């Protein structure tokens, strides 16, 4: 089901409707995802007792609707008599089992619901802030976690069925000292495992999930049903899509059925538990590691998120470059060309080539188009700052300030976004978008209140090379024609903010994406983040390209000496940990597709980290030996 | 000591210098704060193994420097052979005890350091994301937490001394099932408790800490030394000051010595443990609940934070209103008038009164001053948008967009900040500041890329009534003259973005601060956050003013009927949970003083939460009965 975060009323309505259909289709068990009543990513709304009472109330409505069938669903479980570690009322991330209008599950458990054992506390997850886990509850009750992991004994259609009721992370116990599924199995027999989840989409995660879950099922020989929600949820800085992709594994660990990703579906499966589902033939699930999955997640995420905040029309600054072109092609597909306004905002630095490309893109998309030059207003601003005297009130002396060429570049960028795009968006009746990609975000190659403005940064979790790949995918598979002009793909990427960035002379960005994309990826996406110390060590050992995954031989080609290699490394590291942090703090929400997007999953401080002692030793060695 | 987050090199240097001095003063024990080598708020830097190795390396330097005296200090404790729940290398928030160049503490413990038992997982804290607590370790080893809480047996100057080594939250066990101090005491005898902390300043927290700690000491009759760091640390969205305020409690729980808040001090105390410090007379500590503490925290925070990111000069937009005046007075005190550029940016809507007040403020502060009118450029923008045709490329038709009066207000605000202030700041060689207060931040009464821009929002954790109180405090106690013109304090607060906000006619903001400040406080600062359901229930019961803390009788006066009361409540709740969230996501870092500042301690999603079912029932009742 699609879960709307923070809306128990709407989610309950969806569930009641689906239950009605399930009943018509004579289902005996209906399974809804984790936290399907409250939603999952709702910030600190858990601290509102009014909201908690509302969740309980809607949970009761679902429980009352459990006549004729057994309903499994996720909700917050509340113990009003106890507190959590923060002194607030005790809350659990809970698995409810309702039948004949009543809750089951308290036969061998202190609550009429089961609770999550393993709470993810990495990436974007925040369970531990709000919920008390079984790992905390067990010692408090003088019991072992494993003893408390009992199956739920139900009677379904006259048959005794023992359910292993687990929540999301409980199925991913590899790194934990508690092995949830094994423990419930030990306390069995278990006839069916049910994992209810609220698991955000990450490129390639389902591929891994199928491997992990199949392996676990094999070790228990008990079928498992995985139920995940669809929709988008966000934690402010980052917007996550949920792909659903609910999956049924038979006792051999084979996938025998699944729901289409990103689609709300009432899927009925006839599962003879005596056969462990092994009478069903295995099916093949779509791979979720390719550009088609990236596109699907972005398309779904833009659609759901924009509409959820009331945005149906957008203004996009079109420079003729690749990022704005991909952005325009994506939004046009989601909102329709009639709701897209492309605007080209040339200054004296913009080439005829890119201006033409912007117009061509708009033609290809059949959207609204306009050109609003910025040169006059940029000149006005520079003149006003240069010509207006400043007085020192201590000594009465007057002086004038001067706009430097670098400052003038930022004035252009801000003029485009804060003046034109923001003004146009209001007049057009919508929002304007941020076209920044992940490579730029990493090192702050963007202007605050300039090209870093917008209501959503839909491309900001894609490295530049992924933006190019997506451009190709859009032309070839989605539009099936050259919507994004080939020339936009071919020209050198450039901000065109000065004559030093003249595309027609092949001049452009200071970032060399085929190398820096991979270097930046190592800084921010490696599970154990790579720091300059690691980079230098790999460089010294001649394994850098292999380690970071870029094309072999690239560093030799780019940096004739260690000195140049080091200067480049230090330049970008300083930006990544310095000015870029300041910019990201004020950046728009990022639409996540990767294993780590900027925002709540990349917690950072404006500390301007310097390098380690070992780094300086390695640097010294390298500079002295060459 | 002042801890620089993310800089083991600098922190180690400070510690070595202080150790030198301690040795000269013949100290036998030197105590440094929690995480004094790595710093505490460093985001996900803990995921860089290079950084972890660097922390270990610097920890060894301190250990080696522990000849002639016993050194207690905080650092990350690493078990390279184990993993945490996230699969990364196992890290502990650890208490190190060094003497004669060696680590002590593994006599009755699995590591040569002690680890934090209680990890705060509320407010801005993030311990659980990175560190494995004793509560997790104990069951893994098949032990109880309480058994593992053993004192450290040391020999100091020939005497056997048992130290109770605890970390920060371990001293605040009220809401936890584990009582750390009691458990160590039980495993005693303990001669001295040492609590090393990294505890950010919160208005009134020390007052509470002294009550909580004194009570615990009383129950054990063992003296306790509390050592906290000074400095600023941030987690991106929020900047925290650390006030130090290290305190010595004798066995009766009396305070016998303390360090001045916000000051790095090597404090020597002669503590005869056989006397339990009871031979010292109790001293009175400064109260930390008043405006003087607010001022001290802001002054210290601005100073340390601005300099840490390389900002020594600032541009401040001075409107003649209260927020910009207080901001200017604060920054001038920190950076000196020569580094402050005040700029007044009038449009046709700005009154002579406020223009004069801005000039007067600048005169009073003796800073740099200039006036940059915005009317011409605002007119240019409106004309450009209105006059530039847009073409629909599907049918070739042209049309024109129109800037509405409301959109024109935002154009003014953005023109001031993104065009003038940002441009001026670059020319002046510094940053520009955000003058937003907490009341505005709550409901998004500000323009994104407009008055919500800046490198720091120093007033954004103060309600409007606190801003006024701070204005009075600055004039009376800090400048001891009328620096902020009395008229600025007296006029109606107004954004002056249209003739509907004409201050000279007494027209101004739609927020009535004497009531809304308290309503908004209930939404966001109440430990159990109040929602409209609670507000309506209190209103119905006639206890609202008492519950939210505003002046009695105010709601009757403001809202003649329930209908008007409800309309007002719904208006602001919708903004607080809606548009204001979008704005806060892109707002500058907030300097924290209260128990909850915006940013990482106010986790939120763009969900546009609606109200609870119970709210609608109460509303229905109220509207029908009146």
From TrEMBL, chains A, B:
One of its GO terms (molecular function) is ATP binding. The keyword Nucleotide-binding applies. Its EC number is 6.3.5.1. SUPFAM superfamilies: Adenine nucleotide alpha hydrolases-like (SSF52402), Carbon-nitrogen hydrolase (SSF56317). One of its GO terms (cellular component) is cytoplasm. InterPro entries: C-N_Hydrolase, C-N_Hydrolase_sf, Gln-dep_NAD_synthase, NAD/GMP_synthase, NAD_synthase, Rossmann-like_a/b/a_fold. Keywords: ATP-binding, Ligase, NAD, Nucleotide-binding. The keyword NAD applies. GO terms for biological process: NAD+ biosynthetic process. It catalyses: deamido-NAD(+) + L-glutamine + ATP + H2O = L-glutamate + AMP + diphosphate + NAD(+) + H(+). It is an enzyme of class 6 (ligase). It holds the Pfam family NAD_synthase. Residues 1-273 form the CN hydrolase domain. Pathway: Cofactor biosynthesis; NAD(+) biosynthesis; NAD(+) from deamido-NAD(+) (L-Gln route): step 1/1. NCBIfam families: nadE. Belongs to the NAD synthetase family. This is Glutamine-dependent NAD(+) synthetase. It comes from Pelotomaculum isophthalicicum JI.
